[in-house]
Amino acid sequence: MEPPPMPSVIEPAKSSRAACRTCKQPIQKGELRLGVEAPNTFGDSGEPSYQWHHLACAAKKKPAQLREALGTFTGEIPGKDELLKALDESSAKAKPTNYPYAELASTGRAKCQECEQPLEKGKLRVAIEREVETGSFMAKGTGYLHARCAKAYTGDPELLEKIKANSKGLGAAELEELGREIS
Predict the structure, then answer these.
(1) Which of 37, 61, 122, 144 could form a disulfide with 6 if both were Cys (CB 3.0 to 4.6 A apart)?
(2) Same domain, 49 and 122
(3) Last residue of a domain, which of 43, 65, 93?
(4) Is residue 166 located within the same domain as residue 132?
């Protein structure tokens, strides 16, 4: 049985050894930082650990995790108004965090997990969570499908409803097209 995910956390840095996973700059001792769960590549048991981010960097790259952590953090956050403004701006652009979801492909580099054909830039694609073997352990990552291939690949009769619930950034025309292709 897999352990439940660790919640994202805000805490003061215990030392100056950790570098921000977003900007690669050191996080100074005592500075508030965001910890996001990640696989522990150094442990034998595969238990997760945290990857650390400056709060300002997390507002841009990890808005959902930062918002979650802000909800449970009880301390004072310097510059909180600016942080919340940056968080709101990036949340509007952020990809969904729940699978499956649909989006317009930002590049033409990905291939469909079902038919192995390229996914055309600017066209609808369905994102699913998949396991990826990294050599020493299995990690979870995003896989992409053509909308027309998604139902056959997943075998999920409720796929369209799940995608609609998780795809907040799509307009009515895209949702209608998605429904035609998945049905």
Answers:
(1) 37
(2) no
(3) 93
(4) yes
Locate 59 and state its tokens. 């507002």
Rg (CA), the chain: 19
- Whether residues 178 and 114 share a domain: the answer is yes
Tens digits of residue pLDDT in 153-173: 999 999 999 998 888 777 889
Give the tokens for residue 11. 């805490």
- Dihedral sign, Cα of residue 170, residue 145, residue 99, residue 35: negative
- Residue 44 buriedness (CB in 10 A; 0-12 / 13-18 / 19+): exposed
Name the least confident of 24-28, 46-50, 154-158, 179-183. Answer: 46-50
- The string over 17-38, giving b where at least 16 C-beta atoms fall within 10 Å of a residue's C-beta and e elsewhere, is ebebbbeeeebeeeebbbbbee
Q: What is the spatial distance between Cα 93 and Cα 10, in angstroms, rounded to a whole number? A: 23
Q: Which residue has the tokens 């969570």?
A: 129
Domain with residue 126: its CATH number is 3.30.1740.10
- The structural domain count of the chain equals 2
Quote the domain boundaries for residue 70: 9-93
Q: What is the pLDDT of residues 84-118, one digit of tens each?
A: 999 888 876 667 778 999 999 989 999 999 999 99
